[in-house]
Each structure stands twice: as C-alpha cells, then as structure tokens.
Design a protein that fits this description.
619 residues; mainly beta; Methylamine Dehydrogenase, Chain H; Chondroitinase Ac, Chain A, domain 3; 3 domains; flat
C-alpha cells in the first residue's frame, strides 16, 4: 500500500496509496542524497546513491515503518555503477566492465562475494577496455552492455556480454566469444539456416550472426568474405546483387561458395521461378537462373523513375520508384508500380498508385495486400492489389513514425519512434496490439527470426522477443444473417438478412486505445474496447456490410467502475476522431448498451464521469 518516489536529488518521498483515488504523502527521507535507482524487497528498500562523498554506494533502508525509514547499511558498489539488479539475496551491478555481486542475506551487513573479472585488452585492435555501467537479468544470465575505447582515439566498440549467474559467487562469461559487436549502421540482410548475414560499417562487407539461441546471438566469421546490396535465399542458394550478380551455395552458411556470376550491377532483387529481376537506378535486368552455374542476362527494361524498392506481390512485381528533379537532386514524389511477368523475359508495367507524401515510403506485402508506411507520411496504409491496374487503399492507420518492418511469428512489427506489434490475422485490417516505447531508431531494415526481432541501431543490435499471436474468435455469417455471440464476453453482433451478399467470416478482437487515438478528455473508456472485421474466407479480401447491424454489450457495475451507467454509449473511430456510434442507446433495466452502425472497425464502450464545478465568486 505504499509507493516510494525516488528522485535524482531530494531523496525519497513515501506515498500511502491504500486509497488509490486519494494518495497521501506521509514522509520523506535522504534529502541530501543523489539517487540513480532503487528497488523494494519488503521490508527493505535498496538505493544506488552518492552518499557521504562515495559515488556508487548501495544503501539499505528498513521501511517496515514507512513513515520512519531506518538506514541499515552503506556499501560501495563501484564508481561506474548507474543501475543495479536485485534477485533473491543478491545485488548485481556493472562497474567498469566487472560484474559486481553483493550478498544481501543480512541487510545490515551486505557482503561483496563475487567480482567477475573484466576481459583482457585486445592487443590486435589496439583497444583498451573501459567498461560498462548497466546490467539486466534474464533467466540465469546477466546481460551487460560494454564497450572498448581505442588507444588511437577512434570511436568505441560496444558489445552485449552474457554472464552466467546461476552461481552468483562464481559468475562466468557465457561464451568465450562476446556477443553482438557494435556495428556502424548494421543491416541484417538475410537469415540462412540459423545464421544471419549482417552488413557492417556503411560498406557491403558481412559478418555472421549465429541465431542457434535466438535470444543470445553470437557473431561468427563468414569465410570467404562476401559483399552485396540485396539478397534472396532459396533452398541452399543465396542470390545476391551489388557490384555484380552472384549465386552462392550456402549449405554451410558460414562458408558460402560462389557457383555463378553475371556482370550486372544491382541494388534490389527478386527471384521468381527460374528468373531473377534486379533493378538499379532506372533499369531492370532479367537474369535466367535455370542453371545456377551459368546465369544469363536475357533482357532489360527502363523503369519510370529511380528504383527505391522491389517486391514479389503474388503474380506481379511491385516496384517503388522515386521521381527526382532534372536540375536539382530533389525528390519530387514517388509511385508504386505494378509489373506483369506473364512473359518472364519482358516485364510489362500494368498499373501504378501514387501516394500523398513527398518522400518514398517503405513497403511490405501480405497477399493480396501491400502495406505502405514511413516516408514523409505518418500512416500505415493498406492497398488492395488484387487488380493491379486499379490498386485501392482500403484502410489507413495512424502511425507516429516508422522506418522499418518485419514479419515475426505471423505478426507485423514496425520500428521507429517505438516498436509496434500488429495483428494481421485479417490482413485488410492491421490492428496494433502492443507497443514498446523509447526504442532507438533503427538505422537499417529490421529482421525477424522465429518470434524474435533484431533491431539494428547506431549503437548495436537490439533483440526483442515478440509475444505469441492470439487466436481471435470468428464466425461465418451467411447471406441470411446470424448472431455472433463472442465467447467469454458479454458482447453480441446481430447481422440481419442481407447484411452480406455472400458468406463471410467475421472476426472480433480485443483492443486498446493508442495515444494517437485517445478519447476526448470528457470521456472515459471501460474495459470494452474492441474491433469487428469481415473478410472473404477464400481470398481474405475485405468485405463491408450492406446494411446496418446491431452491437449489444452487456455490462456489470464492476466492469464500468466509477463511470455512471446512464452516460454509457458506444463510440466509433472514423480514422480521424471518435464519434458516437449510430443508434447508440442504453437499456438500464437489462444493463445492455446497444448501437446500430453500418460500418465495421474500432469501437469503445465509454462514459462521462460526473464532474464537480467550483462556483465563480465575484467581487
């Protein structure tokens, strides 16, 4: 029932939150301390502070009487320690590359029991090891971001070190090879088997990332060295473009063997059947790869602009092109072009779709749709390209900023100002399910392997585990209409006859409201936030109802909390703002909220808490 507010300067404030609606400040201690972090292990609080002139001290307070905390001990952690981690009877900190382990079994007399030694200097690189300031615990391991400082004054090289702490007194490095080197603008190009090829230092030279244990990837050499701009992995062959077109046998991904080459330059690559399509600037080359040992260039076509990205989209090629000024190197705009390869040697442009942002975006395909994001726009747009001659934007979802995407375990991951995870079980309707804030901006495309995402930044590669995709309830609705009672909820959808021209699949998903879609301040959401979508069960194409349907949400007092029930109503997100759903009303006797909208999408059951206004007193 207490909260301890730790401040950098000013000590710790103690707040009684037994009544969460009226928290009470009951005390303060350590006003002269400079605090960096702290953790509670009742009835003690452990603080990392500068105390009595000693930087990096571990302070232990007895807070069994929160109004009058008692200082039990002060133990040096290390001058470089910025944070510590607490597990069981041990505190772990990182001080200049050393893992410091302190036994706190007796809080009055903490005892430094383990000191995992820093690795030696690296004479081959002329590097002097400097250290680390943070530590994170995961499973039986301590993960320590560390760095080298070169004697010549060159920039630092960072690593994620993994230390086995299953025996805290005798902590040991997990591997002889330190993980994840600092890579200047790294680019994870492709995952071959369980080895990812990672481009380093703004060049085209590659190292390997062994993903046998995807949570703890380890760098491995690639020999002989390979170099390329884009690649496609099929079977045991890796097709690459860069200064030339190369085909490698990667049965052993650590030792690729070149089996064929064609002297063309390329930046983006797609392989379809026995043809490879490579684009560079305003030219697309077609290469016959029927015999990988002797790839042959069989044709080329001019494209209407400068190639920015090339994807395989069902039976088509999707080529994103940028248009530049002829007098200045300014981008005038972009368009997404669609190419028929019915004659594989002579691709024909059959359609185009021009977006409304100036700078080329990123694209990703989930047949029969293309997701468009990034660029100078701030939205995730979904295009239906089942007819490439007439591509149609069918939805537009707000995204603050995104520069890279990947598919992980059947879910879409967007990276930018945050790491966002989207459910795409109904591809026409991507829905944000989770968000991790304060991620570093990726400097290159992100990569996914199983349910892990690898985020390259200018400070190294960050590894994230993606939560498993949820299985959402669905119901087939015939043209004659039907009722969809969502399992384990108090929610029903009633579709009258003629709602759909043919049998469709309707899907319900529980949602949350992202910041960009926040409700007006006068409205307060309940626990009922959801979306409803419909699609063709054969093609996955989006389907919209032909007439209004009914949404019925039963509620209880416990579910709506402090929201007055007579203010409850269903609201609908119309892609720009929240509005009251058509036909929204409430049956107080049956405790059910109803609406009769004509559109699918995101809905929320909200209310208006009573407000108290103070009188205006004049002179």
């Amino acid at each position: 029932g207490f909260v301890f507010l730790i401040r950098f300067s000013g000590g710790v404030r103690v707040v009684d939150v037994a009544n969460k609606q009226q928290p009470v400040h009951i005390g303060q201690f350590g006003p002269n301390l400079s605090l960096l972090t702290g953790q509670v292990h009742w009835p003690y609080i452990f603080l990392e502070a500068t105390a009595m002139g000693v930087r990096g001290s571990l302070l232990v307070y007895d807070v069994s009487t929160p109004q009058s905390p008692v200082l039990l001990s002060s133990t040096p952690l290390g001058s470089a320690v910025h944070t510590f981690a607490l597990r069981g009877n041990y505190v772990f900190g990182a001080d200049g590359g050393q893992l410091v382990v302190i036994d706190i079994g007796d809080p009055k007399h903490p005892n430094k029991v383990g000191l995992e030694q820093k690795p030696p200097d690296d004479p081959d690189q002329g590097a002097i090891f400097e250290g680390a300031t943070h530590v994170v615990l995961t499973g039986p391991f301590a993960v320590i971001p560390t760095y080298f400082q070169f004697a010549q004054g060159r920039s630092t090289t960072r690593y994620l070190r993994v230390v086995d702490i299953s025996d805290p007194v005798n902590a040991l490095e997990k591997t002889a090879e330190r993980t994840l080197p600092y890579l200047l603008s790294p680019d994870i190009q492709n995952v071959v088997g369980d080895v990812a090829y990672v481009r380093t230092n703004f060049g085209n030279d590659f190292i390997g990332l062994d993903l046998s244990d995807p949570a703890f990837p380890v760098t491995v050499p690639i020999s002989p060295a390979i170099s390329f701009s884009d690649s496609v992995y099929r079977g045991q062959l890796l097709y690459t473009v860069g200064a030339q077109f190369d085909i490698y046998d990667v049965l052993n991904p650590r030792s690729p063997v070149e089996v064929g080459r064609a002297d063309i330059r390329g930046e983006h690559l797609v392989v379809r059947g026995n043809r490879a399509y490579s684009v560079f600037n305003d030219t697309m080359h077609i290469i016959n790869v029927d015999n990988p040992s002797f790839p042959v260039v069989v044709g080329s076509v001019t494209i209407p602009g400068r190639a920015s990205e090339l994807l395989s989209c069902g039976d088509w090629l999707c080529l994103l092109v940028a248009h530049y000024s002829t007098t200045f190197p300014y981008i005038l705009g972009w368009e997404l072009t669609f190419w028929s390869i019915s004659n594989p040697n002579e691709p024909q442009m059959v359609g185009a779709w021009r977006g409304d942002s100036s700078y080329p975006p990123k694209i990703l395909t989930i047949d029969p749709y293309i997701y468009v994001f990034g660029g100078s726009g701030y939205a995730l747009s979904v295009l239906d390209i089942s007819d490439p001659q007439h591509a149609v934007r069918i939805s537009n979802t707000l995204v603050v900023y995104a520069v890279a995407a990947a598919m992980a375990d059947g879910q879409l991951v967007l990276a930018g100002d945050a790491l966002r995870i989207y459910d795409v079980s109904a591809p026409a309707y991507p829905a944000e399910m989770a968000r991790l804030r304060r991620t570093r901006f990726p400097s290159q495309p992100i990569a996914a392997y199983r349910n892990f995402v690898y985020l390259p930044t200018n400070r190294g590669i960050y590894v994230f585990r993606v939560p498993p995709a949820l299985q959402w309830p669905r119901e087939d609705i015939p043209p004659e209409g039907d009722i969809f009672a969502v399992p384990d909820t108090k929610l029903r959808y009633v579709f009258p006859p003629g709602s759909f021209a043919k049998r469709v699949t309707v899907q319900h998903r529980n949602r949350y409201i992202p910041d960009e879609q926040r409700l007006p301040i006068i409205l307060q959401p309940t626990k009922s936030i959801f979306d409803i979508t419909a699609f063709d069960p054969q093609t996955g194409a989006a389907v919209h109802p032909l007439k209004p349907f009914t949404i019925m949400v039963n509620y209880s007092k416990a579910e709506i909390g402090a929201v007055p029930e007579d203010t409850l109503a269903l609201y609908y997100w119309n892609e720009t703002t929240w509005q009251r759903a058509p036909g929204a009303n409430i049956d107080l006797d049956r405790k059910v909220v109803l609406a009769r909208p004509g559109q699918l999408g995101l809905y929320a059951l909200v209310g208006a808490p009573h407000q108290t206004f103070l009188p205006v007193i004049g002179n």
